[in-house]
Structures are given as structure tokens and as C-alpha cells.
């Protein structure tokens, strides 16, 4: 980051999952003035963005207490029918338009991003920041994934698994809490199948339902869907439980 990191507000790229939530949390710890969360709602397939249950970010933003900007990306192209690089460039365009609109309203110093190892994602977001003349805060990038996962657990993040698609991950993992025991198992699956401990390759997706950056928690009702070797949680209802125990819905 530049010396002007606090000369303007920050936008946290936010899916509701563990990685974007951790990047946002670390930005707050670093004293960055985050004014907005920004969620891109992709189509059914995406190279750039977290896909399942992004609509929950509205509730998550209410619990966090920061304004949310939502971007409808739509179905831009079928990943199997297009070049991966072109697909990523196409998917970054709605995000860039949203940031440019926001920059007409206030001075933006930078964005946060939760990529861990993906050069594909990070390079495109960095190039976007360069075009806009803003900073990128990516505190997970290049860090040890096991250490990151354990730091999230130790910090008090309650992380639930929304979808799985990898060898060794069966239906019992759906809505399982990502805790130290789960991380131990994921490290063993990494040795056996190459499963990334944080699901960076799409092996699993997550939702943070509670944490030190949240004034309350998300309460979720759901069904599970399973098809052969992969499955997902489909949310049927969700609400906010405040720190006082009161519940509200959107």
C-alpha cells in the first residue's frame, strides 16, 4: 500500500465467505477507513467470484454495520465455452463500472480482496486498481493457507461450508463448521487428494455467520442438494440475531 492509504475511504470486496471477510477484518485492524462492502452477484459459473448464496451479503452487511453496494454481473459467458483469460476480463468489467460510479460520489483510496494463491484473480484486481489509481489490500495473498485458516478460527470466526466439489469431501461437509478439527482433516485430504486447505481451487465455499467484526450473527435455515460427487447448501430462510438476542429478517 502507498503512504496515502487513508487518504480516502476503502471498499471491501465482499462475498460473505471467509476469505473476503478476513481481508475486510484485517483492513479494520490496520485502521483502514472502510466505507462500503461491495458484492458481485455472478451467474451460475464464475472464474472470478464466489458463487453460492451471495444474496446473504445484505444481511451480513447489516450485522457488520457498513453500507453494501451490490453488482449484478449476470451470466456473462459459459466458462467451458470461452477462453479463461477472456472470461476473467469480462467478469471484472461490472466491478470496474461499480467502482467508477462510487468514485464519482466520494474519494476511494483502495479496495480489499481475499485471494490466497490465485494469480488469476489477484492480477486482474491489481490491474483494475492500477487503472483507477487506487491501492489494493490483499492480506491473504501468498500466506500459508493452514496458518490463515487457524488464525480465522482463533479470531472467533464461525465459518460454515456452503458447497463442496472435491475428492474426500462428502455430503457430511455441507454446513459443517470450519474449526481446527475440520482443518486437520483438510490437511490430510490435501496430502491424499490435493484439496486446498482453504478451498482456493473451488473445492469448497463458505459463509461467515459470526465473528469479531459482526454485531450479532446470521441465523440460517437450509436444505442440502447432492449430485454424485458434489453438493451445496440452499438457504430457505435467513435472519439476524443481534448481540442482545433479538431476531430480525429481511
What does this structure look like?
The chain has 250 residues and is α/β, with parallel strands linked by helices. It has two domains: 9-137, Rossmann fold; 147-249, putative n-type atp pyrophosphatase, domain 2, CATH 3.90.1490. The protein is 32% helix and 28% strand. The chain contains six helices and ten strands. It has helices at residues 18-29, 57-64, 84-103, 119-132, 145-155, 180-193; strands spanning 9-13, 34-42, 67-74, 108-112, 135-137, 158-164, 204-210, 217-227, 230-241, 247-249. Helix 3 runs parallel beside helix 4. The longest helix is centred in the middle third of the chain and has 20 residues, at 84-103.
Task: Please outline what is shown here.
With 250 residues, the chain is α/β, with parallel strands linked by helices.
Beta-strand residue fraction: 25-35%
CATH class of the largest domain: Alpha Beta
For the secondary structure, the number of strands is 10
| Coarse morphology | globular
CATH architecture of the largest domain: 3-Layer(aba) Sandwich
Instruction: Please tell me how large the radius of gyration is.
Output: 17 Å
Q: What kind of oligomer do you see?
A: single chain
Give the N-terminus to C-terminus distance in angstroms: 37 Å
What is the succession of H and E elements? Answer: EHEHEHEHEHEHEEEE
Strand order of the largest sheet: 3-2-1-4-5
Q: What is the CATH topology classification name of the largest domain?
A: Rossmann fold
Q: Main sheet?
A: 5 strands, parallel
The share of residues in helices is 25-40%
Low-confidence runs:
none
Task: Give the count of structural domains.
Answer: 2
Note the total helix count: 6
Strand-pairing-aware structural class: alpha/beta
Mean pLDDT rating: 90
* CATH-level-4 superfamily name of the largest domain: HUPs
Amino acid at each position: 500500500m502507498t503512504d496515502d492509504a487513508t487518504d480516502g475511504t476503502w471498499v471491501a470486496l465482499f462475498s460473505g465467505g471467509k476469505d473476503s471477510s478476513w481481508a475486510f477484518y484485517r483492513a479494520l485492524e490496520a485502521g483502514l477507513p472502510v466505507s462500503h462492502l461491495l458484492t458481485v452477484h455472478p451467474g451460475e459459473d464464475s472464474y472470478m467470484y464466489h458463487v453460492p448464496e451471495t444474496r446473504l451479503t445484505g444481511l451480513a452487511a447489516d450485522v457488520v454495520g457498513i453500507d453494501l453496494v451490490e453488482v449484478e454481473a449476470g451470466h456473462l459467458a459459459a466458462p467451458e465455452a470461452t477462453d479463461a483469460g477472456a472470461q476473467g476480463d469480462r467478469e471484472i468489467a461490472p466491478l470496474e463500472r461499480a467502482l467508477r460510479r462510487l468514485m464519482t460520489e466520494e474519494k476511494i483510496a483502495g479496495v480489499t480482496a481475499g485471494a490466497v494463491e490465485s494469480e488469476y484473480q489477484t492480477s486482474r484486481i491489481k490491474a483494475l486498481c492500477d487503472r483507477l489509481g487506487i491501492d489494493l489490500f490483499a492480506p491473504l495473498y501468498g500466506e500459508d493457507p493452514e496458518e490463515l485458516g487457524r488464525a480465522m478460527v482463533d479470531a472467533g470466526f464461525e465459518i460454515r461450508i456452503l458447497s463442496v466439489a472435491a475428492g474426500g469431501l462428502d455430503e457430511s461437509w455441507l454446513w459443517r463448521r470450519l474449526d481446527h478439527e475440520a482443518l486437520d482433516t483438510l490437511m490430510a485430504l490435501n496430502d491424499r487428494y490435493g484439496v486446498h486447505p482453504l478451498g482456493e481451487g473451488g473445492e469448497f465455499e463458505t459463509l461467515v455467520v459470526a465473528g469479531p467484526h459482526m454485531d450479532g450473527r446470521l441465523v440460517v435455515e437450509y436444505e442440502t442438494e447432492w449430485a454424485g460427487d458434489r453438493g451445496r447448501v440452499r438457504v430457505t430462510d435467513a435472519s439476524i440475531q443481534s448481540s442482545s438476542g433479538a431476531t430480525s429478517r429481511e
